[in-house]
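Re: beginner question about structure tokens

> Can someone show what the tokenized structure looks like for a real chain? I only ever see the sequence side.

Sure, here's an example I had lying around. Input first:
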Amino acid sequence: MIKVEIFKIIVVIGLAVSGYAHSQSSFSLPRTEVVDLVDTETKRVYEIHIQHPRHYSKKHKYPVVYMTDSPYTFPIVTGSARYPINSGKMEDLMFVGISWQKGHHGGLSRQRDYTPTPSSPGFKDPSGKAQEHLNFIRNDVFKYIEGRFNTDPARRTYIGNSFGGLFGAYILSKSPALFNNYILGSPSMWWDSDYMMQQQYDLGLNYEGNIFISVGALETKKSKSTQHDMVLGAQTLYSLLAKNKSPALDVELRVIPHANHETAFPTAAIQGLWWLFEVMD
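And the corresponding structure tokens:
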């Protein structure tokens, strides 16, 4: 009899907890919506995350911050920017996160979409479709965002981390003017035997832009967090971009003390945004 009563109590508690859980509202980011976009070239479908500016007005053209690896980067970037924007110390921005292909493994999607060549020692395909993904951003993402919202195409910012940073370096080598600003965290310049370290970054004497490169001080071969010298990769990219740069181009390199590959990006994101969008008194 006692066992039966105890069983009844457990069932009641379980139902109460279940009911409590179902009664709670899920957490969502403020002013944020999610849409699916089809890549008109490849027919792949990508989830796009959009956070509207805090004080959106059709009378004002807003800078847009675009980022890859959105499931990881979007909450970090928007969260870190929320306080300085709300306090009026950073410009009001629109944020757009581009996720991985829907129905596809995230790791394989990013490996395919963000890499410039179809192979790298130790990696298997899919890879090397950076140009296809760049076409998607240029032809589909920009068209959708700039067709719906009052944005300033001359003030686009790209944020990418790791493979996303490598993809940013690829954009800089092929179509730098697509973005006015770049924030590249721990770019994987080692891909395919340092392929992107051997490319030309001729941005032109008329290119006006700002490029923020960062990397954790512990992102070296001596660290357990990476097999590659990410610090050397970031330094090399900085040198290539700073070489023969136009007077209107500003390039910044920051090595984050005590940070490794797993922890460097949040600091890179907010420091890069602050460097670009601080409201000067």
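Each token stands for a local structural state, so reading them left to right follows the chain. Confidence is low (pLDDT under 50) at residues 6-13.
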